[in-house]
Specification:
Length: 351
Amino acid sequence: MMTKNILVFIDNFKGEVQLSSWEALGVGRSLAGGGGKVSALILGHEVEDLAEAAFQYGADEVFLADAPALGDYRPEPWADVTVQVARDAAAAGNAVDVMLFPTTTRGREIAGMAAVDLETGVLVDVVDLRVEDGSVVATRPIYAGKLLSEVKCEASPQIITLRGRAFAAPEADPSLGGEPTLVSVELSPGEIATSVAGYEAKGGGVSLKDAAVIVSGGRGTSNNPLLSPPGDLDDDEQEIWKAQQGFELVEELADVLGAAVGASRAAVDANYIPYEYQVGQTGKVVSPDLYIACGISGAIQHLAGMRTSKVIVAINKDADAPIFKLARFGVVGDLFEVLPPLTEGLREALG
């Protein structure tokens, strides 16, 4: 493997790092080899503590752009600073060969904008990497995850976004450390065209993107004939009311397992649960260690979002549901009969 200079974008929101950033740092370390250098890039305001963490996770160098103008995430200034760091490195004779980003909302946005300014390409949602003839060959899912494609970028730097949980995160070593390289940010908040008026928290509990275990519900959560909805509801409202009771069982199982709650697009479209819980091609793409699908038939849109889960368990009363073709373990049964004893058994086993 030839020596590589790697720049890794550390995605954070107000100083809270996305765990997939440390995974990207581990990938950078493996690509750089013994003689290459791995640099971390941290943007934000009052995020100095993240530099120490980046050193502990294996960065040889940390570029720290800490300024009030970067306190709120806005793509234009964040992309400008990212490009500035890459260009300054090239001007100093240490050109960046590969730029790694986690496949998060911010990571994808900055990767795309940086590629335009640096006149290169982006390899997106990558699940495996190797170096061949000096270029990084990336493996990424295509056709809703049914096939894997090997792709590479001939331009430099090669920009790559990495699917979360597709790569192992390195262990932090508290003995490692260093002084960050400070990046000058010339912009003031008033010079940026966009502004952030405020934030509103959505969802809660365990993050879908970072979860090791996910329990998801689908249209089957509304199919309990034993429930009697309030009589003052119309047909659609009764269906939603039933589904809410079904999702309570999903949430109870997730709580016992310390898992995140997910949902199919069909459940979201039917207003059973908000969009931020959607797993699928138009929702969140996840790769947990364990994925439990409850009342989900397995439409191709949903499978595209969770196909790379390490272990898939399907619970569905339709023995011919497509989800069973992908599942390692399957339970043919009504989720309303299966989930309560399963949850109770796991609660006793896990204490």
